Amino acid sequence: MPKPAAQPLEILIDRVDTPVGELIVVADRKGALRAVDWTDHEERMRRLLRLHYGERGWTLTRATDPSGLSSLMRRYFSGEIGVIDDLATATAGTAFQRQVWEALRAVPAGETISYAELARRIGRPAAVRAVGLANGANPVGVVVPCHRVVGSNGSLTGYGGGLERKRWLLAHEAAAATQAAIQAATQAATMSEKPLKRA
């Protein structure tokens, strides 16, 4: 049970329209994301906040685009998938959960990973079930990309936002990653075709 804070943590809440539903963005006053979830799963998000910070350890205050995070999430959904890579997050949870969440952030956009491989990457190959549970307890969806985890056979497995959203997010990231790779290759080819200047 978390110890009650001397003063409740003030966290700011905003909502962002996306192609797959309204997204909730929750951040602290320092600009770190504390939670990202879907409006239709808001009660689960609040339950996780209570679990992490205690029943009276936090307050939610409505805000518009806290620390520019809502704008960055809009950019992600418009195709700039790299904007979420370096966003600051601040989570409670166990040391093991935070280790899993950190490993998730190392999975590149446009790629997927199995629970078994994720367990291997954190040095706990026998902890596949525990990795799955930590993945499901991730409070910062999309940014800590739990949607990139799939079954060992590549099948889509459970996702807190629903399988249709998971399918959309993976397709969105794959398309954007492919487009970025094409642009990089085109730019590299253009650079190599430029004639060398004579001294």
Short descriptors:
alpha/beta, 40% helix, two-stranded parallel ribbon, 6 helices, 199 residues, globular
Describe the protein.
This protein is α/β, with parallel strands linked by helices and about 200 residues long. The chain contains six helices and six strands. It has a four-stranded mixed sheet. Helix 4 crosses helix 5.
Provide the spatial order of strands within the biggest beta sheet.
3-2-1-4
Q: How would you classify the helix and strand content by structural class?
A: alpha/beta
Mean pLDDT across the residues is: 89
Number of helices: 6
Sheet with most strands: 4 strands, mixed
Reading the helices and strands in chain order gives EEEHEHHEHHEH
Helix content: 25-40%
**N-end to C-end Cα span:** 71 Å
The number of strands is: 6
Strand-residue proportion: 15-25%
Q: Unreliable runs, pLDDT <50, ≥5 residues?
A: none
Can you give me a brief rundown of this structure?
The chain is α/β, with parallel strands linked by helices and 199 residues long. The chain has helices at 42-53, 69-77, 95-105, 115-121, 128-136, 163-193; strands at 9-18, 21-28, 33-38, 58-62, 113-114, 149-150.
What order do the helices and strands come in, and which of them pair?
Elements: E1 9-18, E2 21-28, E3 33-38, H1 42-53, E4 58-62, H2 69-77, H3 95-105, E5 113-114, H4 115-121, H5 128-136, E6 149-150, H6 163-193
Helix pairs in contact: 4-5
